[in-house]
From TrEMBL:
It is an enzyme of class 3 (hydrolase). Its EC number is 3.2.1.22. This is Alpha-galactosidase. Residues 392-451 form the Alpha galactosidase C-terminal domain. It comes from Chitinophaga niastensis. One of its GO terms (biological process) is carbohydrate metabolic process. Pfam families: Melibiase_2, Melibiase_C. Keywords: Disulfide bond, Glycosidase, Hydrolase, Signal. Transmembrane segments: none annotated. InterPro entries: Aldolase_TIM, GH, Glyco_hydro_27, Glyco_hydro_b, Melibiase_C, TAT_signal, TAT_signal_bac_arc. Belongs to the glycosyl hydrolase 27 family. One of its GO terms (molecular function) is alpha-galactosidase activity.
Length: 456
């Protein structure tokens, strides 16, 4: 099965190479406290990313069409506000060469993004997205691209060049595009600062930094936060990839970025969905307002085939409808960021309904004390509470191969007098239930419920 990492390797070879009352971590809060945005990610960030459906083929027209759809479909009103370009926005798809400026900073490929010509960069596209009430971001790899290192341009504002600030011994175990930066060299921070200066000019709101948290690059993690904290414009940082960061890095992550991947790449295969459960459970205590453990993108709708016999072919997600709801429910109740991976222009009614279900999104935005309360080989149960109310969200997952009844005692989850139960996905209310709640859950499916205390 090809992964996102495998795709990056292939491309490079062709090129030749926090609880409801929680606050933003102090260092981030301090950086933005005087700039009108003390809480950069008060709820889990929501948006759309190019990678699962376009890989490196996204262009300016596509991005504008996606932005238009996010507004017209109701996705924006539901909270999906980030439009994010993943890898290779700087690369010509024919020559496989990268574009950068005289200071070794990546710039958009003008064949994909014509409005970026004449030094405009992403500002015209960002302006268009902002005019829709949305926010714009993109993906970079940490450190120094190897072709920029070899060209050795100057680092802006210094007497150094890119070879001076690069650590060629710091290489990724999976990505052959880049070297790490030598953060003990003063020019390394200057190189990062110059990148953020450019992003600020373009009007960027979101930066996904790859090869940063697995393996964990603590000095560069801090360096990127230091760079963005010097700006007047707040830029959200998303650390990637996942499957890696050890829990020992939780405090450093919380102090330096708003979201970070905690799973390896998730594609439209049940095994990928299943592996999210343990990561969500382990990282739940570290997910609170301003800092979010990221379960990766939502591989729904129209995608590029990344693990079948014809990589790159346009396909519909191989997840069943029940598996889609399982994935979405786990993201919502664990309060993971919600970044749609499919081409939303091709959404069917089911996919759009899952993405904008109001009660599911309320659990994602307003839940607290989210946690797994039971887990075995075929059953997982999660609960969260809306702060200051009697409302709780309950998710009962059947990860087994057959449909079955799964019991849940209501007294055990804080409802000794019974509960009013609303089925979130079926959009139905069961009235008052006492004693034991016993829904039938389909294979690889989920029951997702909103519970409230009855009037007594």
């Amino acid at each position: 099965m090809d992964s996102r990492r495998d795709f990056i390797k292939k491309s490079a070879l062709l090129a030749g190479a926090a609880g409801l009352s929680g606050m933003l971590p102090f260092s981030v809060q301090k950086a933005f406290a005087d700039r009108g945005n003390p809480l950069l990610a008060s709820v889990p960030p929501m948006g759309w990313n190019t990678y699962d459906c376009f890989q490196g083929a996204a262009n300016e027209d596509i991005i504008k069409q996606i932005a238009d759809y996010m507004v017209s479909s109701g996705m924006k009103d539901a909270g999906y506000v980030y439009v994010i370009l993943d890898a290779e926005w700087y690369q010509d798809n024919t020559t496989r060469t990268n574009a950068w400026d005289k200071y070794g900073r990546l710039i958009p490929d003008i064949t994909k993004f014509p409005s970026s010509a004449n030094g405009n960069g992403f500002k015209p596209l960002a302006d268009y997205i902002h005019s829709k009430g949305l926010k714009f971001g993109f993906h970079i790899f940490r450190g120094m691209f190897k072709d920029i290192y070899n060209a050795n341009p100057p680092v802006k504002g210094t007497t150094y060049h890119t070879k001076n600030v690069t650590d060629t011994s710091n290489v990724s175990s999976w990505c052959i595009y880049n070297y790490g930066l030598n953060m003990k060299h003063p020019g390394a921070q200057a190189y990062i600062d110059a990148q953020f200066e450019l992003y600020n000019q373009w009007g960027i709101d979101f930066l996904k930094i790859d090869d940063l948290v697995d393996p964990y690059e603590s000095l560069e993690v801090s360096g990127y936060h230091t760079g963005r904290a010097k700006l007047k414009r707040p830029i959200l940082i998303s650390g990637s990839p996942g499957g890696g960061p050890n829990l020992q890095h939780a405090a450093n992550l919380q102090n330096n970025m708003e979201m970070w991947r905690v799973t390896s790449d998730v594609w439209d295969h049940w095994n990928d969905i299943y592996k999210q459960f343990d990561s969500a459970r382990d990282w739940a205590p570290y997910t609170k307002n301003g800092t979010w453990a990221d379960l990766d993108m939502l591989p729904f709708g129209q995608l590029r085939d990344n693990w079948g016999p014809d990589p790159g072919k346009v396909i519909w997600t191989k997840l069943t409808n029940d598996e889609v709801k399982t994935c979405m429910t786990l993201h919502c109740i664990s309060r993971s960021p919600l970044i749609m991976g499919g081409d939303v222009r091709a959404n069917d009614a089911f996919t759009l309904d899952v993405l904008i279900n109001r009660d599911a999104l309320d659990a994602n935005k307003n839940g607290s004390k989210q946690r797994e309360i039971y887990g075995d080989a075929s059953t997982r149960k999660w609960i969260s509470t809306v702060h200051g109310t009697n409302i709780k969200y309950l998710a009962i997952f059947n990860t087994g191969l057959t449909s079955r009844v799964i019991d849940q005692g209501l007294v055990d989850i804080g409802f000794p007098e019974g509960a009013l139960v609303k089925d979130i996905w079926n959009k139905s209310e069961s009235g008052k239930i006492t004693g034991t709640f016993s829904p039938t859950i389909p294979a690889h499916g989920v029951g997702f419920y909103k519970l409230d205390s009855p009037d007594i």
